[in-house]
């Protein structure tokens, strides 16, 4: 249930997000979820797409700097305190969250959040299952992202 996220590095100036969005759209690659963060000098566009290998190749061929990172998507109860319950389990397991962001869709009654951990993602996936935290597969993301 490991997902491959693309991190696209952009200059922090107007119209920089247009190029990767257009390249992916022209290549028929569907963006399933994304996050954009910035600093004074640059931005990082994090993407989970339906074909990460093709997306990486398309972006790199256009001269875009891309890094692939392994992340997990987790179902989180969509109720007050639902995220706190998941984070409590994560902390009890001794895992460290590097960052997270939400998807724009639900899996039934659950919200879906993408997490990047400091630890090896395979270890994270195994540890989370011990808390009955359900990971979302890339196939599930592709189905729900439509």
Task: Return the string of H and E elements.
Answer: EHEEHEHEEHEH
CATH class identity of the largest domain: Alpha Beta
Radius of gyration: 16 Å
What is the assembly state of the chains in this entry?
A: single chain
Mean pLDDT: 90
Shape-level CATH architecture of the largest domain:
2-Layer Sandwich
Count of alpha and pi helical runs: 5
CATH topology of the largest domain: VC0802-like
Major sheet: 7 strands, antiparallel
Number of domains: 2
Q: Give the beta-strand count.
A: 7
User: Which structural class is indicated by helix and strand composition?
Assistant: alpha+beta
Would you identify the regions where 5 or more consecutive residues have pLDDT less than 50? none
Helix content: 25-40%
Give the CATH superfamily of the largest domain: VC0802-like
**Beta-sheet strand percentage?**
35-45%
Alpha carbon gap, first and last residue: 19 Å
Description of the structure:
With 146 residues, this protein is of the alpha+beta class. The chain has 5 helices and 7 strands; from the N terminus they run E-H-E-E-H-E-H-E-E-H-E-H. The protein folds into 2 domains: 67 residues, VC0802-like (2-Layer Sandwich), CATH 3.30.2130.10; 75 residues, VC0802-like, CATH 3.30.2130.10. Strands 1, 2, 3, 4, 5, 6 and 7 form a 7-stranded antiparallel sheet that branches. Strand 5 and strand 6 form a beta hairpin. The longest helix is centred in the middle third of the chain and has 11 residues. The radius of gyration is 16 Å and the shape is globular. The mean pLDDT is 90.
């Amino acid at each position: 249930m490991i997902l491959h996220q693309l991190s696209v590095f952009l200059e922090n100036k107007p119209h920089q997000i247009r190029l990767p969005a257009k390249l992916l759209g022209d290549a028929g690659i569907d963006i399933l979820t994304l996050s954009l963060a910035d600093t004074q000098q640059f931005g990082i566009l994090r993407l989970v797409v339906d074909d990460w290998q093709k997306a990486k190749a398309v972006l790199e061929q256009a001269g875009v700097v891309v890094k692939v990172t392994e992340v997990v998507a987790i179902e989180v109860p969509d109720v007050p305190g639902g995220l706190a319950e998941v984070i409590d389990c994560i902390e009890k397991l001794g895992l460290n969250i590097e960052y997270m962001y939400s998807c724009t869709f639900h899996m039934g009654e659950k919200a879906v959040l993408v997490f990047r951990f400091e630890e090896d993602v395979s270890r994270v996936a195994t540890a989370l299952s011990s808390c009955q935290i359900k990971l979302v597969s890339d196939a599930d993301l592709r189905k729900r992202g439509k």
